[in-house]
Amino acid sequence: MGEYFIGIDLGGTSIKLGITDATGHLLHKDEMPTRPAEGAKAGMERMAAGARQLAESAGIAWGDVKGLGLGAPGFLDLAEGKILRLTNIPWENVPIRDGLQDLLGIPVVIDNDANVAALGEAWSGAGAGLTDMVLITLGTGVGGGVIAGGRLIHGAGGMAGEVGHIPVEPGGVPCGCGQQGCLETISSATGLVRLATAAVGAGRATPLKSDVEAGTITTRDIVNAAREGDPVALEVIDTAVDALARVMAILTLVNNPAAFVIGGGVSGAGETLFTPLRRAFGRHALPDVARGVQIIPAQLGNDAGMIGAAGLTAKGTMMG
Ligand code: BGC
User: One MF term in GO for this entry (predicted)?
Assistant: First the structure.
């Protein structure tokens, strides 16, 4: 007997499922491919089957699972529990909350993937104990979750915190959201690869040339080249952190967070990212407001989304 909560982190490549106790302690987790092309209905059915399987593998009776939360990477109608549009998965207008509820017979709550990662980090990660923090995830996309006064901010339309779509480059390259020059086009993993590819295309000499030409270049290659002192890789990272730091400087003036918690695959670059990011933030942010603002790595890694999503339905959490 007990109370357990399932969190699902829906991503472009994989679906991560985790089960927690009522304190946000992750007890068991699992992962399956998203297979976006199979469509939303098939995806939803696999998520529901995966959730039951997860409880079973953890030795937890389904009757003790009190709720399920789902984090999804894109634009949602929170009141209706619907996916409106996801930037990297072609599923549109999916009534996923009710669909999962019907399949599983337990309460389901949905929220944005970066919002739930922010909740996870605030519940039991790098932001534990902080009432004012902003989480920014740097992965395929750039996501954000804003916690202010101890609450996750949704705003009037439920889309507050979509920091990846803050426009930073007038007339810049098209973004998956339909706009141009969004932060995501520069500071995401995709943005870094694009910048490195453009540098090679412009004839710059760099050890990244062979990876670009083979079409295999990843952020890891860029980070490794930067660590070896390659000026092109260092410039690419500087461009990405400069745009990010400008956005952080603006956010600092909006809600004066105690910390920016940076997660997502790109944050795995460690000090190769954090040192220039802190320097750029120092350049752009208003000193009186920025003083004492910490810029720290997320602690829960890939587990943040699952843990935060589970927390969407757990009482006594920020959302419960
Ligand atoms: C989406 C966000 C999401 C982020 C990270 C962005 O493209 O608009 O909703 O949080 O990617 O997945």
Answer: glucokinase activity
The DSSP annotation for 172-219 comes to --B-TTS-BSBTHHHHSHHHHHHHHHHHHHTT---TTHHHHHHT---H
Ligand 1 site, residue 137, Cβ cutoff 6 A:
yes
For the chain, list the domains and their CATH numbers: 4-121+303-311 (3.30.420.40), 129-298 (3.30.420.40)
Give the integer Cα–Cα distance in Å for 185 and 262.
17
- The crossing angle, in degrees rounded to 10, of helices 231-255 and 189-201 is 140
Among protein residues, the one whose CA lies closest to atom 2 of ligand 1: 74
What gap in Å lies between CA 261 and CA 248, rounded to an integer? Answer: 11
Q: What percent of the chain has pLDDT over 70?
A: 98
Q: How far apart are the C-alpha atoms of 196 and 120, rounded to whole Å?
A: 32
Is the predicted pLDDT of residue 68 greater than 50, yes or no?
yes
Structure tokens that stand for 267 in this block? 């944050």
pLDDT digits (tens, 9 = 90+) for 238-262: 999 999 999 999 999 999 999 999 9
Ligand 1 center from residue 317 Cα (angstroms): 23
Distance 201 CA to ligand 1 centre (A): 28
